[in-house]
């Protein structure tokens, strides 16, 4: 019943309100929740499951398949491409730079090819791409997020 | 001059990529008006005559696919643009969608009309957020023109979420359907049972852009470039040790060496300045020796003769200081992580290969690697498992690529 709903369930339901409650909308639903909370915790998946009327195990099975939904910290993710082409252009030092200045608001993920090889090395902040990134660019991006 | 600009807009193109003016400047409004007035059979016949082959990797004849979907039983049909582009060293669809998003969309609308679909999806990888916004605005432009919407075809963008395997067509359908993006066993093929078990036409971004320029012009214009085997131009993505990394459009049949060296293309090898090897086609591509680069042209028969293929059009360039064992180890890790795990040869095989690479056994366990590669090729459900050993086996065939520090 409505009165028993947790606050989280209510917020998630509000966020998903205009989605059609069918299986084909599960991925868009997960993205909406991800964008709001920057993570998909068991509680959030439970809320999606209730709203979409899809069993929790199914929702979990789908969500856990995708790399971009892995961000348990809920911090702003920073994806450093460490794949072949970016590694040739010094991606390792970018990863170090990001980790050295990390703070508590950013989580660094290593990423497979981001499709930016013409601008290697590349880093993706979840909204935009740092092209031909330098250690200073990465440090500045981490700081910008920290002071948001 | 080797660089051609047909799929990519000419350098003098001045309109905004998402504008109505761009539709006119590129002749895409003309293409739509012309194609949508044709009977579906006439469209399909033109696409078949054009000789367009799929640009997503498998080079399947596009006209044949359109004809199958058109003939397949079913009142509901779908068309899908595959913009998942997660292949190693591959970024041509990104550049194409950044520079000329309307082209591929026009191809999609024409495809929908040809096969009788009312609903289309653009499946784009989750990391291409800025491209996704461009695509959304371009769809609005087509909506204003009346080509997209209730009286034409509805187009919905679906954002992937970081899964290489979701680019495989049947895994992509499962992803859209809200299931785990695991490939399905084929047959049935997408042409008869695709999205929600309905006949579905799925094409790569670049394939659809070819359709748009075909109808913006005519067969005669379209077939002016290319070889006897393959008509038209190809987008290649140059990266790594190359002076001018980027996407270039070249006619099929262009010598590989010229792609690397021409001043308006790759502009020669960087790094040490001496070519060590090229990895052609992506993570499941083939390593070419400098000699092979010298002797081949960008075309299926020429490359096929040395066991290579164009794949996604990725041309990854390594100078002679790169230890390719490091590269294949990275590829092995990628496949082990991205295998969906559904079938044993791929799930176990990719792990075993990774272990052998990590313990430096590339040159000592060659017969084991060959046997394992064959088993994976024969018994995996999808292209990932079938082709994961290809790059590694191509090195074994080319002992001159062995690194001597
Ligand atoms: C593991 C795997 C990943 C794939 N990823 C893509 C991709 O990102 N984009 C693409 O167009 N095709 C991809 N394909 C090929 C598709 O399955 C399909 O053949 C293609 O979209 C058909 O379009 P085309 O005929 O225009 O090339 C992939 C195939 C496999 C086996
Ligand atoms: S070959 Fe690999 S990726 Fe493809 S279905 Fe089998 S386990 Fe999954």
Task: Write a structural description.
The complex is a heterodimer of chains A (148) and B (405). Chain A has 148 residues and is α+β, with helices and mostly antiparallel strands. Chain A folds into 2 domains: 3-69; 76-146, Glutaredoxin (3-Layer(aba) Sandwich). Chain A has 7 helices and 4 strands; from the N terminus they run H-H-H-H-E-H-H-E-E-E-H. In chain A, helix 1 crosses helix 3, helix 3 packs across helix 4 (56-63) and helix 6 (91-100) runs parallel beside helix 7 (135-146). Chain B has 3 domains: 20-222, Rossmann fold, CATH 3.40.50.11540; 233-319, Ubiquitin-like (UB roll) (Roll), CATH 3.10.20; 324-404, NADH-ubiquinone oxidoreductase 51kDa subunit, iron-sulphur binding domain (de novo design (two linked rop proteins), Up-down Bundle). Chain B has helices at residues 20-25, 28-37, 40-50, 62-71, 92-99, 101-115, 129-144, 169-176, 205-216, 219-222, 256-261, 290-295, 300-304, 324-338, 344-358, 366-379, 383-387, 390-396; strands spanning 78-83, 119-124, 154-159, 200-204, 233-240, 246-251, 275-280, 286-288, 314-319. A 5-stranded mixed β-sheet of chain B has the order 6-5-9-7-8. Chain B has a 4-stranded parallel β-sheet with strand order 3-2-1-4, with helices on both faces. The chains are: A alpha+beta (148), B alpha/beta (405). At the A-B interface, helix 2 and helix 5 of A face strand 5 and helix 14 of B. The structure holds flavin mononucleotide and iron/sulfur cluster. Residues 54-58, 60, 82, 84-87, 165, 167-169, 202-204, 207, 382-384 of chain B line the site of flavin mononucleotide (FMN).
Small-molecule binders here are: flavin mononucleotide, iron/sulfur cluster
Helix residue percentage of chain A:
40-55%
Which band does the percent of strand residues of chain B land in? 5-15%
Mean of pLDDT of chain A = 92
Distance between the termini of chain B: 38 Å
Instruction: State the end-to-end distance of chain A.
Output: 38 Å
Largest sheet of chain A: 4 strands, mixed
């Amino acid at each position: 019943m409505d009165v028993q709903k947790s606050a989280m369930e209510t917020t998630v339901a509000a966020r998903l309100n205009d989605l059609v409650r069918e299986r084909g909308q599960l991925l868009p639903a997960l993205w909406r929740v991800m964008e709001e909370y920057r993570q998909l915790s068991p509680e959030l998946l439970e809320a999606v499951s209730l709203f979409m009327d899809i069993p929790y195990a199914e929702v979990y099975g789908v969500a856990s398949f995708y790399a971009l939904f892995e961000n348990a910290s809920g911090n702003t993710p920073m994806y450093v491409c460490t794949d072949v082409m970016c590694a040739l252009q010094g991606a390792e030092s970018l990863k170090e730079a990001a980790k050295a200045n990390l703070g508590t608001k950013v989580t660094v993920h290593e990423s497979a090819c981001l499709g930016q090889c013409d601008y290697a090395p590349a880093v993706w902040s979840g909204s935009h791409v740092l092209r031909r990134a330098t250690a200073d660019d990465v440090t500045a991006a981490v700081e910008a997020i920290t002071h948001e | 001059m080797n660089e051609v600009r047909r799929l990519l807009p000419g350098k003098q193109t001045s309109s905004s990529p998402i504008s109505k003016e761009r539709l006119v400047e590129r002749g895409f409004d003309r293409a739509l008006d012309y194609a949508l007035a044709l009977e579906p059979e006439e469209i399909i016949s033109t696409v078949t005559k054009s000789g367009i082959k799929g640009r997503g990797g498998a080079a399947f004849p596009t006209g044949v696919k359109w004809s199958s979907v058109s003939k397949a039983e079913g009142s509901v049909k779908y068309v899908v643009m595959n913009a998942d582009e997660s292949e190693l060293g591959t970024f041509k669809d990104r550049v194409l969608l950044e520079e000329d998003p309307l082209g591929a969309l026009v191809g999609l609308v024409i495809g929908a009309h040809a096969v009788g679909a009312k609903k289309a999806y653009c499946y784009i990888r989750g990391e291409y957020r800025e491209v996704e916004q461009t695509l959304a605005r371009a769809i609005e432009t087509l909506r204003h023109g009346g080509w997209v919407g209730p009286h034409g075809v509805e187009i919905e963008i679906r954002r992937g979420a970081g899964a290489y395997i979701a680019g495989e067509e049947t895994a992509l359908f499962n992803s859209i359907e809200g299931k785990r993006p695991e490939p399905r066993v084929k047959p049935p093929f997408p042409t008869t049972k695709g999205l929600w078990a309905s006949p579905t036409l799925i094409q790569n971004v670049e394939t659809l852009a070819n359709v748009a320029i075909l109808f913006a012009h005519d067969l005669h214009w379209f077939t002016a470039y290319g070889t006897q085997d393959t008509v038209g131009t190809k987008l290649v993505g140059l990266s790594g040790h190359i002076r001018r990394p980027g996407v270039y459009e070249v006619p099929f049949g262009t010598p590989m060496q010229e792609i690397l060296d021409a001043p308006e293309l790759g502009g020669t090898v960087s790094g040490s300045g001496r070519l060590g090897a090229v990895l052609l086609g992506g993570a499941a591509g083939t390593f070419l020796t400098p000699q092979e680069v010298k002797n081949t042209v960008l075309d299926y028969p020429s490359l096929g003769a040395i066991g290579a293929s164009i794949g996604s059009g990725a041309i990854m360039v390594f100078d002679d200081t790169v230890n390719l064992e490091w590269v294949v180890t990275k590829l092995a890790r990628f496949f082990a992580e991205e295998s969906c795990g559904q079938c044993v040869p791929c799930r176990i095989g990719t792990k075993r290969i990774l272990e052998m690479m990590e313990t430096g056994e590339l040159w000592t366990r060659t017969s084991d690697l060959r046997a394992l590669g064959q088993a994976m090729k024969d018994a995996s459900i999808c292209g990932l498992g079938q082709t994961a050993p290809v790059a590694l086996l191509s090195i074994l065939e080319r002992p001159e690529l062995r690194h001597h520090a």
